[in-house]
Amino acid sequence: MEQRDLYDINRKLTGKTIFKGEPTPEGSYINVVLVFIQNSEGKFLIQKRSERKNGKFATTGGHPKSGENSVQGILSETKEEIGLDLNPNDLKLYYSGRSDAQRVFWDDYYISMDVDDIKKLPLQKEEVDSLCWLSTDEIQSLMKDDKFFKNHYEEFEILLDWLRKGKTK
Description:
Layout: E1 3-7, E2 13-19, E3 30-38, E4 44-49, E5 57-58, E6 60-62, H1 70-82, E7 92-99, E8 104-112, E9 128-134, H2 136-144, H3 150-164
Parallel strand pairs: 3-8
Antiparallel strand pairs: 1-2, 3-6, 4-5, 4-9, 7-8
C-alpha cells in the first residue's frame, strides 16, 4: 500500500507518513502534484477519470509516494496513469501553494510537448478511462457543465494567467 510523506506548515518533512486513503492528521500536510501538457496546436492533454475517481475530466496528477520529491512524483504519476514519460528538464513549475483547509501543498507543472498517438498510451484503468486533446474553450465549457474536476480547474485558471504573462520561457 502506498505511503505519503507528511509535512509541517513550513513544508518541512516531519519524518511521519500516512497510507493512501487515510485522512491527513491535524497540523500536517501532504503534497499534491499536477501537470498540464500542451501540444503545439495549443490543446491540453486531458483525461476522463474513471467512475471510481468521480468520472470527471481532469489533468494528470496525484500524490508523490513517500521518499519522492515533487518532480519525481509528477514523473511517476504521469507514467503510471497515462503511460507517458516526461523529460524533467522540460517541466516548468508554474505554481506552488498551500491550502490550509485541505491540508495540502500544491505543485503545478506545465510542459509543452506533442504526443504521437494518445490512443496507444497504456492507461491505468482504475484511474483513467480515456485521454483527449482539448482547447481552453472546451475545458471551460466542461467546467460550466460541472464535468471538469473543480480542484484541477482552479489550477488550470492559474496556468492560463501564467501563460498570458508569458512565463513559459
